[in-house]
Specification:
It is a single chain. This protein has 160 residues and is of the alpha/beta class. It has a single domain, classed as HUPs (Rossmann fold, 3-Layer(aba) Sandwich), CATH 3.40.50. The protein is 39% helix and 19% strand. It contains 6 helices and 5 strands. Strand 1, helix 1 and strand 2 form a beta-alpha-beta unit. The longest helix has 17 residues. The protein is globular. 31% of the residues are buried. The protein binds 4'-phosphopantetheine. 4'-phosphopantetheine binds next to strand 1 and helix 4. The site of 4'-phosphopantetheine (PNS) has 9 residues, from strand 1 and helix 4.
C-alpha cells in the first residue's frame, strides 16, 4: 500500500492544486491531502473551511482523503505511515523555497522522501493569493478554481 501526503495551506484550493491531487492520486494507493493549521500565518479561510473546500473539489477521486494537521510535517508523515511527501512546483519561483523545505525535512527525518511534480503549464500562474485578490476585486475566478466552490470563495472574499 503506497501512501503519499500532499501538504499545504490551501487558502483556498485552486485548479493548480487539484491538478497535482489528480495526478499524484494515480501514482499511489492513498493520497492524503494535509491542510496545515497555520498558527503564524493569517489565513482567510478557517482550517475546517479549507478542508471542506478540498473535499468538495476532489470528491470524484476515490483514493483521496483530506485532513488537517498541526506541528511538524515529518511527524505527521510518520503518523500517517506515508511513503513520500508530494509537492507541486510551478516554476523557478517555487524551487528555492521547496528545496529548502525538502532539505530541512530530510535532516529532521532522513526516512522522509519529498517528490516534486511539475504543475501543468496552464496552471503554473495560479496561486491562492491571486485567486483571493481577483475575487476580492470582483473579477472572475472560473478559470482558476473548480466550479463547485466558486460561490463560497466569492462570498468569503467579498464579505469584509
Ligand atoms: O501551501 P504552503 O503554505 O506552501 O505549505 C507549506 C507547508 C504546509 C508544506 C509547510 O509550511 C509545512 O510543512 N509546515 C509544517 C511545519 C514544518 O514541518 N516546518 C518545518 C519544515 S519547513
Amino acid at each position: 500500500m503506497k501512501i503519499f501526503v500532499y501538504p499545504g495551506s490551501f487558502d483556498p484550493v485552486t485548479n493548480g492544486h487539484l491538478d497535482i491531487i489528480n495526478r499524484a492520486a494515480r501514482l499511489c494507493d492513498q493520497l492524503i491531502v494535509g491542510v496545515l493549521v497555520n498558527i503564524s500565518k493569517k489565513t482567510m479561510f478557517s482550517v475546517d473551511e479549507r478542508v471542506e473546500l478540498i473535499k468538495k473539489a476532489a470528491c470524484g477521486i476515490g483514493n483521496v482523503q483530506v485532513e488537517s494537521f498541526s506541528g511538524l510535517l515529518v511527524d505527521w508523515v510518520r503518523i500517517k505511515n506515508a511513503d513520500a511527501i508530494i509537492k507541486g512546483l510551478r516554476a523557478v519561483q517555487d524551487f528555492e523555497y521547496e528545496l529548502q523545505m525538502a532539505d530541512l525535512n530530510k535532516i529532521l527525518d532522513p526516512q522522509v522522501e519529498t517528490l516534486f511534480m511539475m504543475s501543468s503549464a496552464n496552471y503554473s500562474c495560479i496561486s491562492s493569493s491571486a485567486v483571493k485578490e481577483i475575487a476580492g476585486m470582483g473579477g472572475s475566478i472560473k478559470e482558476f478554481v473548480p466550479e463547485s466552490i466558486i460561490n463560497e470563495i466569492m462570498l468569503k472574499c467579498n464579505s469584509k
